[in-house]
């Protein structure tokens, strides 16, 4: 099958076994790599253990050891080994590269390299390249108020924290799209490789164009163990392992063993082969203009977990077993023998010689490390804000829906917006992409294909010409994996570009945890002085709950907003534009913003349109407002506030106003609409929040409020429980009541239909007395008639759709 | 490399190409299969299109066609083909099998089979096997108030709805674990195959024991297209495809083409080969007692999407293209030619001949369909509640932590509970499993290995003997994929068994969407008369936010509770036991319950213990209660209520009471503790909810309440906004403020530490005047001292941990 058939053993021990043969390093070079490896490992242990005596200039004593031992050693040796050998190729070929650390808690590896390369001291001058600096560098690691054990935003060169596992490969691909010179060297832990998101992200090669994109060089690190278990990929046969990656579309090159000298040669030769192949494929494609999908190279690096640690401690396996996962010797504070063992282990890395002047020798550094921005820890790509250019924006007003008669014009907001989106794509052909899990066309955004087709590097069939919209070079990225789409988009944004993810609303929960983690990243990044702000991560949700009546209960879940609303107000924004012009205004605002996660909820079907473009801009800028044209209170204190948030809930709320005025033409009803959800919360808790005074100005302090909401109703309560008059606030929304329904029936189940809203309002106005009861009954009968018609025919009565608001409002105003 | 090298084409067209050769079917049998295939396809189209004239006894007119056309045809032909050919083997080998329909919206396939097998009419007598029954069967499909286009709970034989894609394989494995005779025939859509959860679930073979478990026979259906895109796996080379599955550990057998007759032979021969291989591997293992991991067979079935539909309509591709994904001809209501086309297409399936008596002939049915519970649509395994046996339970009281001095005893609740869990395992060795993503040991549950080790069918190394706890037959399932663990557990439960998932709290968000979908399944199942209740899905969350201080911000997210709380009150339960005996009581309760998703949150570190076992049982049974032993109100109206929910928040709240009483010995403080979160909500909204009267009895109607909560504080507000006196409720919880901290510092950031709580309480009691200010300042200084000590040493001052509550409470009581 391939070169690796000769390799039988799946042990991490022994002299190097590798697919690529060759001894590219001289004896002298090997010595240098040995020294650098030792220096790096010393730093990794120092971070975990020492709070003082960083160079072991004195005998190691308890007082030098941290009171609480934290950090992970297990994957550090393999990662360091990879990093430093790739540096050789950066220097030799002048490569533009970043390093992505997939294994969990891999910070000791990357921090040690950033420190040795000098980047760390440059961005954090107190962590200087001297004894004091090293002491602070050690002490701050996993120490209160210090830095994390992951490749957090504080880590120079990092775009991937790896706190939650699974996204290294999709992040790496996101980084290299439209960065044709970039190589993302990506170490994937064999634990991480078991996650679903990682397991499918290998297929990203079917979306990578060798002409316009850079390359990802994955190093699958068969470290052998997770926290407390062997890893699957380290315990299957060579044949299976090789087959798996050939199946995924990669050419795996194996490097296995623990004999350091031969491993130096093997990894050096292998990485070089990979770089040469990458450059060859890119050159072929770029010279010929033909974008093919080669079998991109991938390294399988098998080394013992905790490589170079003592093999056994107290007759229990440490190196090459899961015991070396975290702090390798845990009881040095309690066990003097183990403290001694630690000291002798650390001294085996020769700190005296290697850090003679409290830093590695200039000669060693110059020989092995790239300089300036060629250092992977200093590549500006990994500080995307610094290289980000603003999007070139069409004027969104040019795409306005003409609303001659507010509440009469029918149009599809999403289809209309897609023309604007198409032109955003067209104006930013190398810095904006649209992502989606096979739903872009279904979500009515197909017009974007006029500017950029769907990237496809798989085989082509005859049928594709019949509206397939596929091309090797495109701007739309579609794979049926929300995880991969989100990971690509995050990687793309974090390296200085812009994008939008579109998804069905119910299945966006698939990436709850990824969005959580991205929120955390951008929030922390705000605290890191040297990081510039990146573009916002924009998520457009459509195929919303209220039009998932026919797909049923599984497709009804608007709860992503709850997940997002739990994140820091510094970074999250939620918009529910009520119509097409508001959608345009909101999209424009989101695309121009930085460092947020913007969630936009908008249905994809045809709906009534309410606001002219100028009105929409005013409304969206305020984020919340009274709609006088739909109100009958004429600026006076109203009897009732009918509020809404979300396009479909707004439609029903306006219809309810109409129904109420039909029965009670004298009623003073105020119509309030919310676009920006965080207007509801106090300005103390969110920068967008209203003051209580502003709140009362809109909602009154004592009048009943019937609030029709897009999502779960209690989200509004959680945002408003402190508000004056919150006791009068009656929120309707999705209450997890669904089945195979029509839109009306689904709304009735959840009491968000016009009839229920109007009845609800009547119930809150006891002063209507008998007239109220009579109207209530009439409304109820009307509701039942409409519902029965739907059950008979399978579709809602047309009057529900064609209802127009103005008649009774106008009458009421005249009266 | 394998048999398939000879297959070059990746087109779905042409005579059958297959790995397995042979013509097992006679000409007569082929005719029968042709007839059955046509009858099934006719039903599939009937469901999508017809509301009347089900047998086309009259010419098709518009009035017979549904007003709204819904449903998906694309995957039905391939699924039907697979189902009916597997029936041959069920009959021949008397197999015990279920069918799992992976492709999205695959209901027309499975419903047609359930109807033809007679099961559908048995469970839904109005859908009888006659013209009227068929009319109702057609009309109800995707019709308001009817049945869904997925394999919903209403579908006999289904344990897998497939509304959200990605879980067919993990569900299938869950079903066959500990069901040694069962085969789960599992069709995987090539769209679904792109999802992360599915991509890693193929590795489940490393956890399947051929002696004690049944088998999964996957049929990867290369249908070629998703909604609007080609699929990745249908557009890679044969070599890659075959390698991929060999890499995953399967032996792929290819069956490809669209020529029906040769496809009958090829699929019949291939499925038979697979069944024979499965039986052979099982026999070898069971005879020898040696559980090896064979390369289990897998079928790759490549047929055109919408197979047998017109190849083109109006010169646009339909069959073999994404246009056949959903309703294949969409405009039959508007375009009379297309209505004609539909009619002639439907008649090509020969309804007149095949449904002569309005049902398929007895002869055909008997020849091809299994009977009774051998029908995949009637296998009781897929109605797990009917075969479920109650767990054999140890007496949880036997594992009580002895609490001599409440609030003084220090113990690890989780370690203690693990002995109980071990014995639950031991008593139910074929019907209970523990699942976890490599965290069981870290979560302090390692004692369970004494009863059942971790299932591992990968290679073994020497090191494994050194505490590896691996075995081919075990009871603990660990793979670093929350998705796979959850999918296994769901499959296991839905087929009549019991289990528990343990996970780090922050990363449970990875499976938000899966848990959502399971909640929806069990809620809908309650409405299906013939379904019996299954065991609850139990999720134990630990490594909680308040002890993720050192791992940092990425590891801090208690928001899973918000996601769960959005689901129907019929099915969700959330418990936060404050100590070890409460944890035991809660676990016991959850294991005995049915049809819930129970979420239990408990930290894994050592903590103070408060309640004796009998007190704990009383407290947990009530779910919420006053703790008089920690209160100084002596049953009178208090000045202040200090409430808490969650073990660590309880600890801090009690310490705050102590601090307050130190300063104000006369203060009447009431201590309220919440175990069952839904006690907080109104009894109108949740069956566990308190009445307002009960609420006031605990919390008062007008006194300040300082509520220390485990999760995001607004979750409590959303549950309680309607409560009397809710304006006095001040909730503290995680506010998304984190870093690398100590526990104290993390709590201070979020104002949940004892000092902040006590200061908070003082702020709500203006009547304390100057004494209040002085106490506040003292507390603040104490807080700063503690915090500075932590920053200096890296660990919190010991007094925080060893604090004991009773001194000041006792004093206060005496006074």
UniProtKB/TrEMBL annotation, chains A, B:
GO MF term list: aldehyde-lyase activity
Cofactor: thiamine diphosphate
Ranges of residues in domain Xylulose 5-phosphate/Fructose 6-phosphate phosphoketolase C-terminal: 604-805
Domain of life, source organism: Eukaryota
Species: Phialemonium atrogriseum
InterPro entries the UniProt entry points to: Phosphoketolase (IPR023962), THDP-binding (IPR029061), Transketo_C/PFOR_II (IPR009014), Xul5P/Fru6P_PKetolase (IPR005593), Xul5P/Fru6P_PKetolase_C (IPR018969), Xul5P/Fru6P_PKetolase_CS (IPR019790), Xul5P/Fru6P_PKetolase_N (IPR018970), Xul5P/Fru6P_PKetolase_ThDP_BS (IPR019789)
The protein's name: Phosphoketolase
Organism ancestry: Eukaryota, Fungi, Dikarya, Ascomycota, Pezizomycotina
UniProt KW Lyase keyword: yes
